Amino acid sequence: MGVLRVDIEPSVLDWALRRTGLSDEKLRATFPKVNDWRSGEERPTLNQAKELAKKARIPFGRLLLQAPSGEETDVPDFRTVRNERLDGLSPDLQEVIHSAEARLGWYSDYAEEVGIPGPEILRSAQDSTSSILAARQARIALGFDEAFAIPGPERVTTLAHQMEDVGILVSRNSIVGNSTQRHFSIDEFRGFTLIDGEFCLVFVNTSDAKTAQLFSLAHELGHVALGKAGISDHSDHLRVERWCNEFAAAFIAPETAVKERYNKKCSLLDNVTSLASVFGISREAMLLRLKDIFLIEQQEFDEVMRLVRVRKEKKATQEGSGGPSFHVLVRSRVGERFFETITFAAKSGQIPERDAARLLGAASYKSFENLVKKSDWASREAEYLGSKFQLIGD
């Protein structure tokens, strides 16, 4: 009996190969005949097709369709490479978006039912609005003084908490759910924003350096202010992304605060290094900020940028052994506001606990119970929702 082979439509084959996330070199190592499959000279064996489906994280039957289907999201994609829109989303990115959509969908329905107001900053600006003015207004809304940098050694956490305090769901993660084997790539995306009616959620890829995470969080806040959902990568080829980049720079490093701290007696490189540390952004971002607020000329910018790029930004430490406890990680991954709201709803009988466990990513009921025990709701007799987030309407 001959070897059983599988007919796969060229468009489906290309789609499945892209979904694996493997480079051409790794594809050839995994599937030595992949170029022959693409050219049509040879068909994959049944076992090879099954392995391809496994690598692409799709049911085997989807390889037998006439065309790719059912993989995309409705979230606008603002990512670009060399001025061209990127084609498709990886399975990991699709999964995290779908999970975030489920959390936001539940929160939106629940919030409307119990009278939780949406964040006032949502849709507070238009792309015709000055990004500088919008950033200044956002700082006021979040309680940050225009004359100072975002305080504290953990600026990302500080900003995330302030955003949650005004009603924005904030999720931060470097992996898919709780799977330490599936890490996000910063080459694919930096963050995204979802909007459901009067409510919103922002997600930041924490695989990046802390300075980049802070910029990403502020960038997504810009998307919230505009009321424009989307997947971001910090490129400035599209108008919305350019506006959000300008917003983020002005939000993190206000012109008044930067100029007050700029020391004309020091070299430009020393100023850039010092100011980047003060405001918590990369030296590249600070150098660009100095040019944008007309403290330096283009020639100075070009000269120092070459020096700055010699030293690469230190990458954020990946989560692993010796890191935060599980409940601390879950709080960060789903966001404080969502965590406290859903544990309150579950223990007060407003949502089945199995549904709450699923939305929190808890693998078992015991795991869910342990998470609930660590909630502020449990330790403060449900006062958390009313006092901190003002979730219950007057």
Task: Throw out a few tags for this protein.
two-stranded antiparallel sheet, 394 residues, alpha+beta, globular
Give the arrangement of secondary structure elements.
Blueprint: H1 10-19, H2 24-30, H3 34-39, H4 46-56, E1 80-81, E2 84-85, H5 91-114, H6 131-142, H7 155-165, E3 169-173, E4 175-176, E5 179-183, E6 191-196, E7 199-205, H8 210-226, E8 230-232, H9 239-252, H10 255-261, H11 268-279, H12 283-292, H13 298-308, H14 326-334, H15 336-347, H16 353-360, H17 365-373, H18 376-379, H19 383-387
Parallel strand pairs: 3-7
Antiparallel strand pairs: 1-2, 4-5, 6-7, 6-8
Helix pairs in contact: 1-4, 6-9, 7-8, 8-9, 11-12, 12-13, 14-15, 15-16
Question: How would you characterize this protein structure?
Answer:
The protein is α+β, with helices and mostly antiparallel strands. It has three domains: 10-64; 91-252, no CATH class; 326-387, no CATH class. The protein has 19 helices and eight strands. The chain has helices spanning 10-19, 24-30, 34-39, 46-56, 91-114, 131-142, 155-165, 210-226, 239-252, 255-261, 268-279, 283-292, 298-308, 326-334, 336-347, 353-360, 365-373, 376-379, 383-387; strands at residues 80-81, 84-85, 169-173, 175-176, 179-183, 191-196, 199-205, 230-232. The strands form three sheets. Strands 3-7-6-8 form a four-stranded mixed beta sheet, sandwiched between helices. The protein has a two-stranded antiparallel ribbon with strand order 1-2. Strand 4 (175-176) and strand 5 (179-183) form a beta hairpin. Helix 11 (268-279) crosses helix 12 (283-292) and helix 14 packs across helix 15. The longest helix is centred in the N-terminal third of the chain and has 24 residues, at 91-114. It is globular, with a radius of gyration of 23 Å. It starts with 9 loop residues before the first helix and ends in a 7-residue tail after the last helix. It comes from Corynebacterium pseudogenitalium. Residues 165-291 form the IrrE N-terminal-like domain. This is ImmA/IrrE family metallo-endopeptidase. InterPro entries: IrrE_HExxH (IPR010359), Rad_response_metalloprotease (IPR052345).
